Amino acid sequence: MSSVNLPENLIIAWLRQEKREKPLFLVGGSVRDFLLQREFKDYDFLLEGDCFLFVSRLKEQFGGKAVFNQRLLTATYKIKGLVFDFATARKEHYARPGILPQVRPTTWQEDLKRRDFTINTLVIPLLKEGWGKVINLLGGKEDLEHRLIRILHKQSFYDDPTRILRAIRYRNRFSFSLEKKTLQYLEQSWPYLQNVSPRRRFKEWQLLCAEEEVVKNIEDIFVLGGWSYFMGGLSFQQSLWEKENRAIAKDSFPKELRPWYLYLLIFLAREPEMLEQISAYWGLYPQEKKGLKQTLILLAKQNQFKRLKWRQLLTELKELPPEGTYYLFRQNPNWGENWESFYQEILANKMPLQGKDLFELGLKPGPEMGRLLRCLEKYYQEDLFQTPQEGLKLAKRLIKEDFNE
Ligand code: CTP
User: From ligand 1's centre to the CA of 17, what distance in Å?
Assistant: First the structure.
């Protein structure tokens, strides 16, 4: 476990050369994932002293983007698809459970003690000559070997109840177990989630749903006793859930769709009246809520779709977010085989004639042209013409017949 062969790149080489009296460590998820031989997405670094100065110099040297969080003493540096997170070693003080902590600088050893789980406390020093050996101060190495998730102190979930959801994610992502005492504290700590800000609760939902093991994650909320504390009043029915999550199955749905949206729709479709409540409990933005609402309205009147002409149906779905159209599409197999092309059709469903196309018929901008365009739009929706030429022909006839809207 201690022989280390970590990725190298220009930035790492620079970090290594940068003369620092104080140590710089790879830490947290990066070390954990490296030891588990999993690909890691970003580099987490821990250092003593001023991480802002350090990252500013890095940016001066290579360009890229840096974002500083003065409150948490962290900085993120992004360049060419790589992400480097730097944290000044810090101690945390939670004035109340669930709120963001007050922090002050400390030693790197102390920093490790404030973290969530032992498996996230391993560090690897970055040396001038290469990577050092894994340092295991708090038993993370043994827990990683025994595949155990263990909190570092019994206040951990109380201080930061979002760690409950982190534990669930790790448990299913790595197929780890919750250590006995950790499990006990976790089960007792769900009520503290009520102290967390709505949007932080929602962020955890997004993260749970973005995982490969989303189905297990959602079931764990229920199995571990947290449903009523985390899901803002939505209910859970095992048999319906099993049927419906299979219908939406993550690995088959298109990458561009937001998983959190689809999984929330599964529950809301059963209880649309809960939309207000869950939106408030999770701090959904008006735009997010609006899309859900429009989808729920159309779900309720699905049986009327049969009466619509194809284009009218496409127009009905035009205002929905892509996830809404996908959810409805899965329930209506006669709409086609492939959601992507169906969605493209929705986006492309525009009448192929505009006011300027009517100039050649001698019409001028004004109320009459407006009336004619509305009339043509209606005929287009009823599939009475397809191409601009057919549209113009129909327009001519309408003018001759002194049309009415
Ligand atoms: N951390 C913590 N408590 C939290 C969130 C984060 O102690 N509520 C610490 C953990 O040590 C974690 C590190 O901050 O390893 C970085 O957090 P994050 O990037 O969210 O987690 P990763 O460990 O990188 O895990 P993931 O793969 O899920 O991103």
Answer: 27
Residue 391, domain extent: 355-400
Mutate to test the pocket of ligand 1, among 26, 34, 91, 115 (most ligand atoms within 8 A of CB): 115
- What residue type is 9 in one-letter code? N
The answer to whether residue 299 sits within a structural domain is: no
Q: What is the CATH number of the domain that holds 61?
A: 3.30.460.10
Q: How far is the CA of 247 from the centre of ligand 1 (A)?
A: 32
| Residue type present at position 5 | N
Question: Looking at 129, 146, 163, which one is the last position of a domain?
Answer: 146
112, 146, 180: which is the final residue of a domain? 146
Least confident of 14-28, 95-109, 284-298, 309-323: 14-28
Tell me the whole-structure pTM to 2 decimals. Answer: 0.89
Answer yes or no: is 275 within a domain: no
Give the residue among 85, 79, 76, 77 at the shortest CA–CA distance from 27.
85
Closest CA to 125 of 53, 32, 47, 38: 47
Burial 296-333 (b: 16+ CB within 10 A, else e): bebbeeeeebeeeeebbbbbbbeebbbbbbbbbbbeee
pLDDT tens per residue, range 294-340 = 999 999 999 899 899 999 999 999 999 999 999 999 889 899 989 99
Pocket of ligand 1 (CB under 6 A): 28-29, 44, 115-116, 120, 160, 162-163, 166
How many whole angstroms from 177 Cα to the centroid of ligand 1?
Answer: 18
Q: Which is the closest atom of ligand 1 to the Cα of 170?
A: 28
Give residue 275 CA to ligand 1 midpoint distance, Å.
Answer: 31
Residue 113 near residue 138 (C-beta atoms within 8 A): yes
